[in-house]
Amino acid sequence: MNNATKALSTATSTAVKLSGPIVYNAKVAGQIAKQVYIREGMAPPSGAQIEAAKDATLKFIKSARSANTWKNISKDQYLKAGLVAAEAYTFFLIGEIIGRRNIVGYDVKSADSHEEHH
Questions:
Q1: Are 70 and 76 in contact (CB under 8 A)?
Q2: How many angstroms separate the CA atoms of 10 and 1, rounded?
Q3: pTM for the full model?
Q4: CA distance 114 to 117
Q5: How far is the C-alpha of 79 from the C-alpha of 85, rounded, in Å?
Q6: What's the CA gap between 27 and 29, in Å, rounded?
Q7: Each residue's pLDDT tens digit, 57-101
C-alpha cells in the first residue's frame, strides 16, 4: 500500500467514525430549530410582504441617491453615526482579541521551539 492509499484509508475510516455524531447533532439542531419555528409562530414571508420589502428597498435607494438627502443631515446626526461606527469597530477589535487570545498579534511559536517529529 502506498502513502496515498494509506492516507485515503485513514481519512475514510475517520469520516465513517465521525459521521454518526455529526448526523446525530444535525438532527438535534434541526429539531430545536423546528421547535423554535413553531413556538415563535414563524412563517415564510407572503408574496405581499416580499413586494413591500422590495418596494421599500427601492424607495430607500432612490432617496439615498438624491443630493439633498445628505445636505439635510445635521452635524449631530453625523456625530451619532460616527459614534455608532466607532462602537461597532470597537466590538470587532474586542472579538479579534478574544479570537487570538492575545492583545497584539498572534501567539506564534518560533521555528526553533518546535521539536522535529521524524
A1: no
A2: 12
A3: 0.37
A4: 9
A5: 10
A6: 5
A7: 998 888 777 767 677 888 999 999 999 999 999 999 999 988 888
